[in-house]
Structure formats: structure tokens, C-alpha cells
Amino acid sequence: MLQILLVKTSSMGDVIHNLPVIADVLAHYPEAQFDWMVEESFSEIPRLHPAVRNIIPVAVRRWRKSIFSRNTWHEIDDLRTRLKHTHYDAIIDTQGLLKSAAMAHFAQGEIHGMDCRSAREPAASLFYRHRYPVARNQHAVQRNRALAASALHYPVPQTLPDYGLGNSIRLQNTPGLPGHYAVFLHGTSRDAKLWPVSHWVALAGKLQPFNLQVLLPWSNPGEEKRAREIAAQCSNTLVLPRLELTAIAGILAGAALNIGVDTGLMHLSTALNKPSIAIYTDTDPEFTGVFPGIENQAVNIGGKAQIPATNDVFQLAMRFIHKDD
After folding, report:
1. Where are the alpha helices (DSSP H) in 164-232?
2. Thinking of the domain 3-152, which architecture would CATH place it in?
3. pTM
């Protein structure tokens, strides 16, 4: 029975892009068991996958801010102690960064990773016992799958990925939740990635004749303000309360359609096999955009220095809405 440690620590989208590795491995090694090392703030993502046995949280982002703190070093020592008790048949670091490689080095077992020409930070390859070339000119999901295939000696899969979350998330019982709804994921990490409020308002209006209520989640005061600004101009919108990630996942899982900007939650929507439209205004989605899974229900629109038109997004939405009719 293979004991495997997956190392993909951050960010949310990157962690989600690593989920298909599990289904790929299980197709060749049905008895494999998985632990996952991940940043504490994203630990809920691998926890959603039913095949992940143990979550090993790290806090590199927080530790960097207090590197001389005694508590920081206590936490690092606790991590080392915990990892001493399990020997892994394979430690697979798909992150390819110095921080992930260093954390992987605490674990017991041989580490597999990308070679110096393939890793995001070439020096990370110095920490790996086994190094593999992985072509850069492909989507992050495919790079992760290719690395795992090389590490565990099976052919690189040519199928669409299986994120493994389709049947594992249940709709959350949020008060006032409508029966037929879309989710607008309007918030993101940088203002340059935002889609104009006027476009969200116009899109909500175009969806109203289809009896589709629009839900507006938020996670910080700025996003709440934007959600209420959109809702103030649309009669078919509902601003949600602030929710934890697992609750938001449940709401995304129950949606007829999820539309959003460049944010980790859009990748989560895709992993849930939900119709997903990702709007890009500041980055190129070719290698890190939403990547359709086995249900093939995800599409990117826009790109660097582009503001997709409301009607173009609406036309994409119609493909999914009419498909469900």
C-alpha cells in the first residue's frame, strides 16, 4: 500500500489544481493513501476530498512575519516531530518553490519534484531526490498530473481531470437561499482583476428573465461594500452573510451557474463540476485559468488588459442555462 505525501501549499487555485493527481494515482494504485501538506489558510481544500487521510498544515506565510518568535520555532519543531512518525513511499512536491521543497524535506521518504528547468524556483530542485522535466507550456493542472505520473511510473493521463469533489459537497442550509440561483464571485486579491460594478449590474439584469436569483458572497469589508452596491441596483440579487470556505463550497455546489473574476473560488466551482465562467481582466488564463474537469463545464473569457463585455459573458451563460432547460 503506497503512502503518499502531496506537497502543494498555496494558493487556493494552485491547491485546487493539484486535486486531480489523486484520481490519477488511484486509477493505477487503488490502495494508495494520501496525506497533504498545505498552508493553514487553504487546508479546507484538500480536506474536502474524501481520499485525503491527513492534512499537515504549515504556516510559512505567518512564520515569515515573526521569524524570530519563539512560538514560530515551536510550531516548526512540532511539524518536524509530527513528520518523523510516518515514512512515505513518495513525497511529491508539485509546488516547485524553495518554501515547499524545504517543508517537504522535513518528511520521511524520498522527495520527487521538477528539475531545475521546470520548477518555478530552480533552486527548489536541489531538495529533491528524484527530478523530472515537466513542460512549462501547458496548464498547471496538466503539469501537476505529469509530475505525479513520472514520480509513480504510470503514463501521463490524456483524459480530462477528475477533481474528486463532485459528490463530496452538500448544499449548505443557509437561511433564505433560493431554489434556483447563480453565484457572482466579484471579489479578488487585486483591484486590477476586478470586473466593473456596472457590468455585474447589467449581467444580473440580463439573467432576471430566466428566474435566476443572483447570490453575492463576500469575505472582507471591501467585497461586502461592492456586493451591496451591486444589490442596490438589482432586484434579483441577494447579499450573503460572511461564510466560511466549506459553506461557500456548498453554495457553489448548489448553483445553476457560477460566474466570477480571477479568484480561487472560481477554480473551486470548476472542481465541483459546476458550470463556471471565469472573467479575466489582468492576467492570461492560458496556463492558470479555470480548467474543465470530467464534466467539461468551465470556460475562461478575457485576458491581460481586457475588460470582457457584459453581453459576451451573458452569451456564454446562455450556453449553460439552455443546456439545463
Report:
1. 197-207, 221-231
2. 3-Layer(aba) Sandwich (3.40)
3. 0.94
